[in-house]
Amino acid sequence: MKQTTRLALVTGDIEVGKTTVVGRVVELARSRGYVCAGLWSPAHVVDGHKAGIQAVDLDSGERRLLAQLATEGTEMQIGRYVFDPIVLAWANDVLEKAIVAQPDLLVIDEIGPLELEQGGGLAPVLEHLASGRVPRALVVVRAWLLDAFQARLPGALMATFVVEAKTRRSLPARLVEWLFGTRQE
């Protein structure tokens, strides 16, 4: 029998702190004994300014530069960024290995227009989420893409958590509670 995937969708305005919240959820979940794996994508900062996006394998800690700010005339631009196809292939491999390992929580930071509008990037993970092979996942999704994301996963149990300045500090604990409930060690 196919299990239902429990998905916590993290959304909010650009640069409000979605990825920071995800990082804190991973720390909190791990401190409670849960295994977290997947992909976390913090900013790549140069001279105090965001210059791109890193991809971090939550299992090994390996970091790679996933995307850089686009320059004028750049090909294959998605929004403000140009994504490295070699790092995207590595990121998909990281997610595939995490799914096979069956962690307590699969992290996907993030699903955006590249995946939902173009079928590229991390789009292969959507099939795994739809199949029910992933018991719990934390997924960052742009607010304007929530409907498209939810339409791709009709059988999943989903809850949306909006990151705002006033919710940033309390949200990680709420997310862990929704994902795992209370667990006595």
The biggest sheet amounts to: 10 strands, mixed
CATH topology: Rossmann fold
Task: State the distance separating the first and last CA atoms.
Answer: 29 Å
Helix content: 25-40%
> What is the string of helix and strand elements?
EHEEEEEEHEHHEHEH
Number of helices: 6
CATH top level label: Alpha Beta
Beta content comes to 25-35%
Name the overall outline.
globular
Unreliably modeled segments: none
CATH superfamily name? P-loop containing nucleotide triphosphate hydrolases
How many distinct folded domains?
A: 1
CATH architecture: 3-Layer(aba) Sandwich
Number of strands: 10
What would the average pLDDT be, to the nearest integer?
91
Q: How large is the radius of gyration?
A: 16 Å
Structural class: alpha/beta
Overview of this structure, please?
The protein has one domain (6-43, 54-63, 84-180): Rossmann fold. 32% of the residues lie in helices and 31% in strands. It contains six helices and ten strands, in the order βαββββββαβααβαβα. Strands 1, 2, 3, 4, 5, 6, 7, 8, 9 and 10 form a ten-stranded mixed β-sheet that branches. The longest helix is centred in the middle third of the chain and has 17 residues, at 85-101. The two termini are 29 Å apart.
How is the secondary structure organized here?
Elements: E1 6-12, H1 18-31, E2 36-40, E3 43-46, E4 49-57, E5 63-69, E6 77-78, E7 81-83, H2 85-101, E8 105-111, H3 113-116, H4 124-131, E9 136-141, H5 146-152, E10 157-163, H6 171-180
Parallel strand pairs: 1-9, 1-10, 2-8, 8-9
Antiparallel strand pairs: 2-4, 3-4, 4-5, 5-7, 6-7
Helix pairs in contact: 1-6
